[in-house]
Amino acid sequence: MKAKKKFSQNFLVDQPTIDNITEFIRARPNQQIVEIGPGKGALTDQLARCGAQLILIEIDRDLAAALRARFQNSENVEVFQQDILETDFQRFKERGLGWRIVGNLPYHISSPILLRFLSDPSWFSDAIFMLQKEVVDRLCAEPGTKSYGRLTVAAQATCIISPGFEITPDAFDPMPRVISSLVRLAPRPQQPTAAVLTICEQLTRFAFSQRRKTIRNSVGAQFPLAPLEAAGIDVSRRPEEISVERYIAAAQNLLESRNPARTGPDAN
User: Fold this and answer.
1) The model's pTM
2) Cβ-contact 53, 71 below 8 angstroms
């Protein structure tokens, strides 16, 4: 079955690499795992042998059919033919929390997929993704670096990011033009509220859309600056110079400024 360009398919074919990824994941019997883009099932086969309970999300109808045929006698493997960007995560929550997520994400839509998971990390215990190395660099970036941006803030606000190992193009068929890398995302024990994350996403979207401008000039027309300064943000700095913690604190201050607590004799 040939790879389809419209799905950015690159199938893992190098067995030592597949073994190393399996070791990095360390699946255990009865763990609930969602695999995104299983392709021909090279990694799926290894995970199924570990005794994990697998749900496969594959957008390609032909591959989904082939996977159903391949694992028809495996009671621990379910196959769904659908787009992960349209998948309802509620189905996983209804089965319990603590899911694990693994996947070789299509590089052309990796950021939207990541942001989708980062918007609600409550239902999974960790996520291990194979991504373009450049994207992993963005996830792990420090303030003041070129790679630091909106995706960095979104990821580090909710997850602890642990880079894995690099994977060379010759591990795939067809070979991609970029180096790939593994990364693990583990949700932080203490999470900002959904409302704070929403404001933080809005704030960073405006800030990094004009990253060469100062905070004052990039977001000043959309947000009051006082709550940002109260969070310790120097509004004369550029967006990439502001830490994740200060962005979250600024979002919290903005939320509170929009919904001030009612006090005094008229509070009731």
Assistant:
1) 0.89
2) no
- Residue where the block lists tokens 């996977």: 67
Helix or strand or coil: residue 67? helix
Q: Which of 204, 222, 216 is nearest to 152 (CA)?
A: 204
| pLDDT tens digit sequence for 105-163 | 888 889 999 999 998 898 999 999 999 999 999 999 999 999 999 999 999 999 999 99
Closest CA to 8 of 109, 103, 82: 109
What confidence tens digit (pLDDT) does each residue in 37-55 have? 999 999 999 999 999 999 9
Q: Please report the sign of the dihedral spanned by the C-alpha atoms of residue 185, residue 87, residue 110, residue 131.
A: positive
At residue 220, the 3 state secondary structure works out as coil
Give me 27's structure tokens.
């699946």
Residue 193's alpha-carbon distances to 108, 153, 155, 158, 252, in angstroms, are 29, 15, 14, 10, 9
| Strand partners for 77 | 54
Listed residue (27, 8, 17) closest to 171, CA to CA:
17
Termini Cα distance of the chain:
67
DSSP state of 45: H
